[in-house]
Amino acid sequence: MKPTRTGERDSSKAAPNAAQRAAVDLGLVVAAHGRRGLLAQPDGTRLPYAVRGRHLKVYCGDRVFFAAAGAGAGEPVIVESIAPRANELQRLSGRGGLPETIAANVTHLIVVMAALPAPDLYLTDRYLCAARLMGATSAIAWNKADLACVPTTELAGYAALGSPVFPVSAITGAGIVALRAWIGAGTAILVGQSGVGKSSLLNALVPGADAITAQISLSSDEGRHTTTTSVLHALEGGGGLLDTPGVRDFVPAIPERTAISSGFVEIAEFGCQCRFTDCRHLRESFCAVQEAVNDGLIEARRYESYRRLMNLVRQSDGRTD
């Protein structure tokens, strides 16, 4: 799930040759601020970095080769190149539908939800679709469980589709141990609407992270953006947790429309039974997916979510469905 514009250099494949590798060290990007940030060495030491060349784009979670020689006290080391990425979490930006990378090398994606702001299940579906397409394991963290009951009816379907639901509370600590154990030694990313308590949940999962928490804006029922930079925090016992800016919308960058069905577990399952191999499961005849929706085997709301995402991606291509 990593589309690249024609003529644009794919920086994720810019790994150095043997001679270069001997002259640089390998680090993990733990904070990215445009062309500068922080990287962690294998011993845990953090160093400020700057990127060499205008074509090299570095994101949180990247493994990078850097040259420390010549860097004086307080001076940043120079990132020379990037090790090949396992995946990228990308979304379509508002600038002509171009892909925007949020993070790299993600193994676990956690959609954080809460009673306020009101959950957007279509947004949740798009995150889960992105996770499946990029090969990441997904889960839902229902935050502020001490303030409101978990809507089991609405969320039960996600668990049945392979995304477990963790009721958690950053205040009482409920569910935190279970969620941390689920992440294990992987690299997880917290995503979701602004105001759902991602920063407070981060503080509960990573004591001492000092992430800023935000109050819910009662006037607009939307959270204020409190995180402006992606940061990778180390978890006790291994693994890492990415904290990213909250978004009010998310459309995954998908290179081919036909791949969207693979991001919906149940649609991919029934789609194999369609008469036509290129069936988009919209208005085609002999479509097993549409039949499954009519028979109640696929939730109608999830199918509508699939249709909406198909149309969003088509709009980004300059077409409508």
Account of the protein in words:
- The protein is an alpha/beta fold.
- Helices cover 23% and strands 23% of the residues.
- It has eight helices and 15 strands.
- A five-stranded mixed beta barrel has the order 1-2-3-5-4. A two-stranded antiparallel sheet has the order 6-7. The chain has a two-stranded antiparallel sheet with strand order 12-13.
- The protein is globular, with a radius of gyration of 21 Å.
- The protein starts with 17 loop residues before the first helix and ends in a 5-residue tail after the last helix.
What is the helical fraction, as a range of percent?
Answer: 10-25%
Q: How much of the sequence is in beta strands? A: 15-25%
Number of strand elements: 15
Mean pLDDT value: 83
Tell me the number of helical segments per DSSP (H or I, 4 or more residues long): 8
Helix/strand-derived category reads alpha/beta
The dominant shape is globular
- Low-confidence blocks of residues: 2-9, 18-22, 211-227
Tell me the strand order in the biggest sheet.
1-2-3-5-4
Q: What's the Cα radius of gyration? A: 21 Å
Please describe the biggest sheet, giving its number of strands, its sense, and whether it closes into a barrel: 5 strands, mixed, barrel
